[in-house]
Inverse folding.
C-alpha cells in the first residue's frame, strides 16, 4: 500500500504542509517528529537502560553545618 507513493505525491504533501504550518513552524515540527521517532525506536530496541540503579548523591565532606552544631549543644546541656 505504501510502496506506490511517487515523488510527486511526496512533493504535494510537503507543499500542503508548508502552506498549513508556515515556514517558521515546519522545521520545529520536523525536529519534534524526529525526536519522537528516535525515542520510540530506542524504547522498542531497548537502547534506553532504565533498569540502572539510581546514582547516589554525594555528601560533601567538611563542615556538617548548623544542624550538627545544634545537636552537639543539646547533648552538652543534658549532661550534669
Amino acid at each position: 500500500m505504501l510502496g506506490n507513493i511517487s515523488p510527486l505525491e511526496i512533493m504535494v504533501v510537503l507543499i500542503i504542509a508548508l502552506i498549513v504550518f508556515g515556514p517558521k513552524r515546519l522545521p520545529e515540527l520536523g525536529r519534534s517528529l524526529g525526536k519522537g521517532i528516535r525515542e520510540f525506536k530506542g524504547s522498542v530496541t531497548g537502547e534506553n537502560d532504565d533498569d540502572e540503579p539510581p546514582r547516589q548523591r554525594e555528601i560533601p565532606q567538611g563542615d556538617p553545618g548548623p544542624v550538627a552544631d545544634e545537636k552537639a549543644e543539646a547533648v552538652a546541656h543534658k549532661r550534669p
About this structure: Residues 1-47 form one domain.
